[in-house]
Please model this.
Amino acid sequence: MSQERPLPTTSYALLGLLSFGQELTGYELKQFSDSTLRFYWVAPAMSQIYTELARLDARGLIESRDDADSGARAVRRYRINAAGLGELREWLSTSEPEFPILKHPVALRLLLGHLVEPSTVRKMLQGYLDGLERQRADLQAVLDSIEGREGFTYPSLVAGWGLDYYDAERRSVEDIADRLPE
Model:
């Protein structure tokens, strides 16, 4: 008997999104992941969404059906089932959290800052701070839309954590900018 390979974390992320009780198409799941996961996890590409949905369906962790009422052509809709909820709960309860790997393009550029003028580094850091503020505003809008809603306690906590992260990141980058050579 061959043992199945463990599911990748992205599979659990998609199961988690489906656990909010919605029946979604792959496209809708992509939109949902783009509006939520992008703040603290990698929002998977469209092709990865369908690959993971096929894997989850093959393992019997989700149910799928064709929906001919959606327009000109039938679309497939997905919903988590009891086995998928059980698998997700098992993963949440028993697996060790992976330690995050800092893959930070701004930190990489700062590491190589000796190759350009300090003014170039300052400009790069200011551009990052501007982008950080836009991301923070987007996440604040998400938190404002879910805070206090039934069933969204944990997503609200994660959004708050993300806002704290953005605030700390801003403070760190501002401190670095202050310490750059003239």
Q: What stands out?
A: Residues 118-146 form the longest helix (29 residues). The helical segments are 9-18, 26-36, 46-58, 82-94, 105-111, 118-146, 153-179.
